[in-house]
Design brief:
mainly beta, 14-stranded mixed β-sheet, nine-stranded parallel β-sheet, 49% strand
Length: 412
């Protein structure tokens, strides 16, 4: 059954019992509940929607049975407050051009749901409840409007009862002249658990307020912060991962990808990365601009320790160690057996080769306090600065080639 672009299927007249449409549906027009519910039912069907499916006055159910049934929407699925769109069996895909919007409930607990398109909670604004998981691919988007500080009546929120796999874009806009202020918090998504991050952010620019994101195990928040400024970057800067919003390199092209127990939290200036000390890291692909050979280079970062256990806390490294005794690169870590927290270069083959440490005793540090750590290699001398003070200096013998193919930041 093809409902053409000018066509309309609704439930006017005939009582309040749900109407059933049995067969394979190609919807290019409008399917809408106006007095009673609608059930789309078809064995082995491949349904498509490029128009509008609207749970307006009553619910919509897509009941899929048989061999590999599916529904793919490149159009709009709209669910009003108090209404439910339910998809059972097979697969349901909100495709790249698709939009799921509204302030009701989308029940996808009994189907395989994927969102490659846009999830738009509310109808300016509102709460969209998702019964089941929320898997968002790299092409997907969560579109949020802010018109006040109360969820539902003031701003949009998507709430999933299952796990969320985040990806794609978080797109935030203000509505009706609303202007967020410092201290405002908008919980724009909730879920049972989370993996991944939004790969791009579109946040309003507001004078005197910096909007940032805060990821937690069960939510994503947009928060209003006082704008903070870093010192001017030095000349010759190759890459800078600020951690304000994602893993972007804000001066170069070496963007990173947060994985595992990696997130963001308040830092010395604005936001920064947080790592769980288990599997959280920011991984950066190898690039010639990051391979220094035997030349001069420097690395600087802020760190606030949760613990100071020796050997277990990697800080920042570009080193190919994966076990064994053959590895090369540079790294910062906590290694009391070599003198404490510090900066190291090495190029070892079966345990043989140059390895140089510039370290400062771990007893000089404490948890819960930020430290500015800088490692400089100049003319093959390693210098370690802590909060602007030179604390250790060691000569490489011989000069060490630190070029390798692995780069990650893994603070504990």
């Amino acid at each position: 059954l093809t409902n053409q672009a000018s066509g309309r299927i609704d439930t006017e007249g005939g009582g309040n019992n749900a109407r059933e449409i049995i067969g394979e549906i190609v919807n290019e027009g409008v399917i809408e509940t106006t007095t009673a519910g609608i059930v789309l039912r078809g064995a082995d069907a491949t349904h498509t929607n490029s128009g509008l499916i609207h749970a307006n006055v009553a619910n919509v159910t897509i009941a899929q049975t048989g061999s590999s049934p599916s529904t793919t929407s490149t159009g709009t699925v709209r669910v009003e407050s108090g209404r439910t769109v339910t998809v059972t069996g097979g697969a349901f895909t909100n495709a790249v051009a698709g939009l799921i919007e509204g302030a009701g409930t989308l029940n996808v607990s009994a189907t395989t749901f994927t969102s490659d398109g846009t999830i738009g909670p509310g109808l300016s604004p509102g709460l969209l409840s998702i019964t089941g998981a929320l898997p968002m691919s790299g092409t997907s988007a969560l579109a949020i409007e802010l018109a006040g500080v109360a969820a539902g009546s003031g701003y949009d929120r998507a709430s999933a009862s299952g796990a969320a796999t985040l990806g794609g874009a978080l797109q935030v806009d203000t509505l009706d002249g609303f202007v967020p202020v410092v201290g405002d918090t908008f919980t724009v998504a909730t879920f049972a658990s989370r993996s991944g991050f939004f790969s791009s952010l579109s946040l309003p620019t507001i004078a005197g307020v910096q909007l940032d994101t805060l990821y937690a195990a069960g939510s994503v928040e947009v928060i209003g912060r006082s704008p903070a400024a870093c010192v001017a970057p030095p000349s010759g800067l190759v890459s800078w991962w600020s951690g304000d919003r994602d893993g972007s390199d804000i001066v170069g092209s070496n963007d990173g990808t947060p994985t595992g127990g990696a997130g963001h939290q308040d830092a010395v200036v604005g936001r920064g990365f947080s790592f769980d000390g288990v599997d959280g890291e920011l991984g950066v692909a190898d690039d010639a601009s990051l391979n220094f050979g035997t030349g001069d280079f420097s690395v600087a970062f802020w760190v606030n320790f949760d613990d100071l256990s020796t050997d277990t806390n990697g800080l920042v490294d570009k080193d190919n160690f994966s076990g064994g005794t053959t590895h090369n690169g540079w790294l910062f870590n906590i290694y009391d057996g070599a003198g404490g927290i510090g900066f190291e270069t090495r190029n070892l083959v079966s345990g043989v080769g140059p390895r140089t440490h510039a370290r400062y005793a771990t007893s000089n540090f404490q948890t819960g306090q930020p430290y500015h750590i800088v490692g400089v290699r100049a003319s093959n001398v390693l210098n370690l600065y802590i909060d602007g003070v030179l604390r250790a200096s060691e000569v490489e013998l011989p000069a060490t080639d630190v070029s390798t193919t692995v780069f990650r930041r893994t603070p504990g």
